[in-house]
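Board notes (copied after class):
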Amino acid sequence: MEQREQFFTREEKEEAHAKLAATVKAYSDETIKRWTADIDGSPVYGGLLSAIVSTFNAQTYSSLTPTPPDTTPAILRQISIQLASLNVNSPFINSTHSAYQQVEAMVPSVPIAMVWLNALWFASLILSLSAASLGMMVKQWLNQYVSGLPPETTSSDRHETMESVRLRQYRLNNLEKWRVDLFVLAIPVLLQLALAFFL
């Protein structure tokens, strides 16, 4: 420690600390600003796309369950046939036609194109909601990163304290450790995939 005292004067140390603080602040501010700019509109775009896709899904989802055929006309036809074949012999009324027997109707199958369309639209909805959620989460991380950091330096305050430099670098290292940059890059990819599946 004493050897360092001999090599650097107090002014040189303060100048080195000021350069270090300025470098760390410039790098972290530029990184956070770039990431924030990359995802600013993503949660809104993801939410709007989700609303549009869910509207289409709500309209077409019901077509995935085939509607059973209406049996009312068949029953009415049977009643009409029975009434037409009535024989009136006092004191009995007989019908020569048998009673109605329900026949299993063929249930129409769902077109495979409708299944694929709904599958793609539901995948689009999941991707767009994931992108919107991820965008909000990353925005919260970035807001948490800048909270508690000192504001811009003024002319009366030439450099940040070493404690604030350590805090800034610690937070930046953790953002890089958690690979927030990959989350930021994943958001537009998810939105583009969601749009492609929708179209």
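Comment from the instructor: The chain is about 70% helix and 5% strand. Helices lie at 2-7, 10-39, 42-60, 72-84, 112-146, 162-177, 180-198.
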